[in-house]
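Late entry, written up from scratch paper. The run itself happened at the end of the previous shift, but nothing got recorded in the book at the time, so transcribing now.
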Amino acid sequence: MAKDLVILAYSGGLDTSCILKWLIQKNYDVVCYMADVGQDEDFEKARKKAKNIGAKDVIIEDLRKEFVDNYMLPAVQMGLIYESRYYLGTSLARPCISVGIVNAAKKLGAKYISHGATGKGNDQVRFELSVYSLWPEGKIIAPWRLPEFFERFQGRSDLIEFAKNENIPVAATPKEPWSTDENIMHISYESGVLEDPGVAASSGIYKMTRDLNKTEDYPSTIDIVFDKGLPVSIVIPSGHDKPLELSDSLTIVQTLNKLGGQHGVGRIDIVENRFLGLKSRGLYETPAGTILHVAHLDLEAFALDREVLRMKKYLQEKMSDFVYNGFWFSPEATYTRKCLELSQQGVSGKITVQIYKGNVSILSRKSSTSLYNKDLVSMDVAGGFSPEDSTGFININAIRLKEYARFTAQTKF
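Output as recorded:
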């Protein structure tokens, strides 16, 4: 009798390696799926490990370009920042990976998709809502939500013991007393020793960015060119006659990550609100994303109509929630994204930024589509503006304030 096929989102770590073995023991054929979204991973080593455990096959797919072009940079264009601080690096990667794993499941005729996300986190929601949106008839196996699994494996020590008994190679002790998620956009750190928000994180935890006392002692200047809200090229002075010009999106992100990391740009330590209702503490490093978001924000203020900008900010907050909560492929997110893209039609130009000691500072901006009118705003020429009109403008706006003052003077609260 043929076994049902499961596609497992595999990382090569302790959890998914044990889940792989557990699924095989439950009489499933398992194909492991690994998405390369820019994490520091020895994929061939992970492939060999999965095969030795018993995986029927291992699929490794390079999704770095896909992630940057269709998720990260559109998030910059839309201005997506969750709770005004988090640039959504992990959240954006989940729908990207989901597309890859669903395509694999359809191609191989799999019945199930499985993952190692825990029952308390956001990733289970993001991953599964994306899968169901892309593959409505698909089925999910989430071991950490199944009593037969989580009652048997109540923590890391149980998994380590299981791995030893099944000859699965793992470190005897945790390499790092926290959990990390990495891609080309960011690295996140949470859980373990970070669960106490009152304890400062060790500076040695960070991988992408330098401590400020170890950063360069000179600033770096970068020109960032946007077309309809999307960063399309950067220019960096090289110290020689010809500056470095880059237009490939993947190379732009990699270069800004390196340069921003050297200057300690993009670190945050926050408490955020998970979709399930829990609060969690997370540390994030997003060098390139921070530089691009700061530059894009300045260009928007320069180029957009005031009321469009305010309406856009409302929509970007809604879209940030959609992405954080796992609704990238929902109808409301599709609609909101189209509205946000429409707002960016005139957001084109060049922003010059300086990065230094953890800061991203705007030096100048140029745009042929900006609504900025130098003559109209100048203090030296009239530029078509009539000062007398301001008197009526002030008087009309003062009516409400005068009436309120009159009312409160007569009324005792």
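The radius of gyration is 26 Å.
(Scratch paper discarded after transcription.)
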